[in-house]
Every structure is written in structure tokens, then in C-alpha cells.
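Can't paste images in this forum, so I'm doing it all in text. The chain is below; anyone willing to post the predicted C-alpha cells underneath?
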Amino acid sequence: MPGGALEAGALTGPATTFRAVVDERTAGAWRLLRRPLLLALFFDCLVSIQASGRISARLVADGIVSFAFVPIFEVLSLAVVYRRGPRRVPFAQTVDLFCAGNTPWLLWMLAFAAVRSLQTPLQATAFPDWWALTLLLSVIPTAAWSAYIDLQFFRTVLARQEGSAARDLILQRAISWTCIIGWYVGHELWQYIALWIGI
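Text version of the structure:
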């Protein structure tokens, strides 16, 4: 499927799209890495825009190091779920197709970056309560949309039954989000502890 077509199809008809591509037996390092790298690139650009209002090579490079854990934990959590049932699709292809479920998050990041690029540095760091609430509320439909795509992925690509697909989705989210939040909070917590004890 041409680049971008999988993402567009996943947004509008995930089950149909996954059925159309599940029999494409392709593997390899690039197939494994390309969509996790796309997610990392979006995160890195978002970090750069939030920090400076523009995309800077130095800040993007910093983001690559700082937020690499997000796609890594996503792939590792998928690997756990992948091993729970029949594996009719190669793992590299499984990762590639699964990451199409990130498309709602990529659109959310694009929208956030567009708004942020119109703000002054002061507005970006001291936004009003209504903007913070809008930002938080916008995460709910984005997460639901992504979860729906992933549920169709587990049903179609991994051929899980209805209840099993839902359990796989919950398990994958529990592992990845726990690890991502734990890594982020732990990293921040260590910095505060280091400052407190004067390291």
C-alpha cells in the first residue's frame, strides 16, 4: 500500500483497510522501523515547536533522545501481546500495521503544533485555563479513535476473537502506558531528587 494510504484507510475504515493489506507478506528492518520512527519524528518536531515555536535541528535531535522511549515501549508491549496467540503475520509487518493506529495522535500533534506556532513564547507557557481544559479534553476522542483502530487491528491482523481482541488491546495499553508514564515520571522524579540532595 502506498505511503500514507494505510494511515488514511485506518482513519476511515480500519477493518477494511487491514483486511486489504494483511496478506502482504513483507518483513525486514525498514518495515519494522518506519512507522515507529514516524511517531518519534512527530514527537521530536512537537518538542521543538513547543520549546521554540519552530522546528530546530538541535531541538529535534534532543527530542530523538528524550522521547525515543515512547515508540520503544509501544513496540515492546505489542511484542508481549503478539506472543499470546497465533502469529500468522511476521512481527515486522505486525508492528508496521499496528502503528497505523497512531494516526489520530499524529493528527492531534499536527493540530497542537499549528496552534503553538501561532502563539508567542509567553502565550505558550502561560496559557489560560480554558485552553488547558480544551487541550486535555481533546485527548479523550483522540485516545478513543486510536483504541478503535487498534481493536480492529487485533481482530483483523492478529485474527483475535471479539473478547480476546479487547483483552489484547487492554493489555497492550496497560503495558505501554504504564511504562511510558513510569519512565517519564521516574526521569522527572530523579531530577527533583538530584536537585534536592544537591547532586
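The chain has one domain: 5-197. Residues 162-197 form the longest helix (36 residues).
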